[in-house]
Give the backbone structure.
Amino acid sequence: MKTKKLILHFILIMFLFSCHSQSHEKGTSNANDIEKKVNTFLIDKGYDSKDVKKIYSLIEIVESEKIEINSVGIYRLAIHTSHTPIYILLKDSKSIKILDLENFAHSIYGISLFLKENNINNKKTEKYLEAILKQYKNNKSISNSGILIQKE
C-alpha cells in the first residue's frame, strides 16, 4: 500500500512539474476517425483485419461510460477475447492517442502530458492514475499467467 502511494505521489509530482508539450493531430473528433485509429492500432498489434471492428469496446476508465465524440477522457480499449491486455486511449477535442501499457514509463509520461494539456484537476488525475495503475497490474498478471513446467 505504501509503495502504491509513493508511485502515485511521484506520478503526480511528475505531472505537475512537466513542462513539455505534445503536438496534436487535427480533425480527430468524429466517430470514423476514432474507429480508423483503433482499427489501425489493432491490426498493427496482429489482430485479424476482417474481425477487428467487432472485437473491441471503448469505456471511460474511471466512470465506465462509453466514448463520446466531443469529450476529453481516458478510455480502456478492451479486446473481446480472453487473455488479452487492455490498452489505453487518450482522447481530447483535437487528438486520439492509443498506448500499450507494456512500456509503462513511456505510457505514464504520455498520460501525464495529456492530463496537463487538458487541465484535468488533481482529484480526477488521481482517479485516472489509480485506474491506469490497476489496469497495468491486471495486464501484467495476464502476461505472467502462463504455465510453468519444471524439469525433474
Remarks:
- The two ends are 38 Å apart (CA to CA).
- The longest strand covers residues 73-79.
